Amino acid sequence: MYRNCFKRVLDFCCSLFALIVLGPFFLLLIILGVCFMKGNPFFTQPRPGKDEKIFKLIKFRTMSNVKDRQGKLLPDEMRLNSYGRFLRSTSVDELPELLNILRGDMAVIGPRPQLIRDMVFMSSEQRKRHSVRPGLSGLAQVNGRNVITWEDKFSWDLKYIEKITIVGDVRIIFETIGKVFKRADINREGTVSDMDFGDYLLQKNEVSQEEYDKKQAEANELLRREKKK
Questions:
Q1: What is the pLDDT of residue 189?
Q2: Whole-angstrom distance, CA of residue 89 vs CA of residue 189
Q3: How many helices, marked H, and strands, marked E, lie in the chain?
């Protein structure tokens, strides 16, 4: 009953309550984002959701829109300013996902939504993680987040969907809060889990260059279709 009915109701109520309480802070971050990011403070990206239905994930932008003289965006490392690093280190950049939860794209707790170019490289077993709504946090995030391997991430995701309970979700929420305050497991540099899944498999020689190119083309086709909608 919790998994199929009450979880969605609680997710809606919790996200709505959080948005109301954090409203002033949310507004402040929007204003700061416009100033520090030189434009739109939000960043949206297509991600696979429940049943692999693609939705637009909403986050606070952590890289500015600064361009060179030719009008091209500068390299990532030049656009990631101190404000963006603050958002990432505190996980505040994830706050707009409360809107995704409110809309029904996501849940408070569930497997984190990965990139489409990650999804196409997953095995049929690993893609079972898409049988539930993706979450703001999940078992993988409180058991290593960005410092564990892709295999471990998917293993935790599959373990979560085996038994979804309100007690388990509440426990993950409190563990997530602890991780955020400690700023634990957020390192994005040099960790195999933060590398695109396809690149990770290619590096390990678990897919050939031909297979890699084919899967990347599949991901690009899915994105192209999404843009046409």
A1: 46
A2: 12
A3: 10, 4
C-alpha dist (Å) from residue 49 to 72, 101, 141, 184: 31, 11, 17, 26
**Per-residue model confidence (pLDDT) at position 5:** 87
Provide the 3-class DSSP secondary structure of residue 43: strand
Between 166-182 and 7-21, two packed helices, what is the crossing angle to 10 degrees?
A: 30
Kindly state the tokens that stand for 65.
Answer: 């829109």
b/e for 139-154, b at 16 or more Cβ within 10 A? Answer: bbbbbbbbbbebeebb
Residue 137 φ/ψ, nearest 5 degrees: -145, 170
Query: With a cut of 50, which residues of the chain have pLDDT below it?
Result: 188-193
* Cα separations in angstroms, 147 against 70, 103, 161, 171: 37, 30, 22, 21
Phi, psi (deg, nearest 5) at residue 84:
-65, -40
| Distance in angstroms (rounded) separating the CA atoms of residues 142 and 144 | 6
- Tell me, what's the pLDDT at 191? 45
Q: Give the H/E segment covering residue 222.
A: helix 209-228
By the 8 A CB rule, do 101 and 107 touch? yes
Instruction: Work out the angle between the directed axes of helices 82-90 and 23-36 (0-180°, nearest 10).
Output: 150
Q: What is the pTM of this model?
A: 0.89
Please, which residues bridge with residue 42 across strands? 60
The span from the CA of 61 to the CA of 73, in Å, is: 14
Instruction: Tell me the β-bridge partners of 45.
Output: 57
Q: What 3-state class would DSSP assign to 109? A: strand
